């Protein structure tokens, strides 16, 4: 069968990969509303840093898994790595639902980090492989919309289930369904896409030119420091997920302390990733039309506004949380597909999977950085100050992109 690049030409497999990524994202949504409260209310953990430890474990493990995911994909094929990711995820909902100690929750997040680093990375790489260079922004918008939309909807649903039935085990039953459906789809209906990357790579190599296949260390240095565009993108990704890591741990505790009920916290936690996810259906194509840099810079600044609104005394805690979360979600929706598309633009197809892995390493290290920062600041100054510090870091990151990055979109 002759293969062709393009979204229209490969819409069936693309759609199936969108569905799989909804299951991948839903696994993260399991934890957004309930797990911090499991730590404080069921296991009686009083220290903010210890409560946030599950996010630090998740972020660090996912970051390092992202780093090697591209190498594994080139060695074992994209499909095998995707299936491997689901196998690591199978025990997670059971451990979250019935784990007898906080150590089990930490262990579940180690496995979840590995699973997400492998599975989500592969859905990104496989969609980029299929669509080719012209529709990368749209492809990443649809991919991340599916994943983060599922994060938000699952966070909302677990909040209602927890309010109705208790914190455990009922809210985690959804995760059992996600893992089984995601694994079966990945084994039986998803096809590997490495041949599509090879086709694109051949199209950008001139006759007689040797393809450059650098090792991971070279790609790490190039993506992290040497290439100005890739450096700007990587630090923006880190700060973007620092916001998410901070909100993951801080928002349930902050808004419960302000008198917001569990259902209200579920809405605050859900609206951020839902707007983030759904918004990318629009912002992904905008990144293809207007360029990557404007979406990244202004998306970071919109997130700053979200931080300012949260805790604003003119509003009730619930309203400030909802408005702030909408702004955080909108800003992140502007940033996310543009960042992935910018990395794909700047990296050669022969080492693009590894470069995406390095970018995602820095981006998802932001989860750990956000939780660590939040724990330290909350212990010293209070939970609300963790939100303010994250906003300041986001402002500085947007300025760095503004000054350092050149547009990567090919006209």
UniProtKB/TrEMBL annotation:
SUPFAM superfamilies: MFS general substrate transporter. It is a multi-pass membrane protein. It comes from the Bacteria. GO terms for cellular component: plasma membrane. This is Predicted arabinose efflux permease, MFS family. Its main location: membrane. It is found in: Cell membrane. Residues 1-194, 229-411 form the Major facilitator superfamily (MFS) profile domain. Signal peptide: none annotated. Keywords: Cell membrane, Membrane, Transmembrane, Transmembrane helix, Transport. It holds the Pfam family MFS_1. The chain crosses the membrane at residues 12-30, 50-69, 81-98, 104-124, 145-166, 172-190, 295-312, 318-340, 384-403.
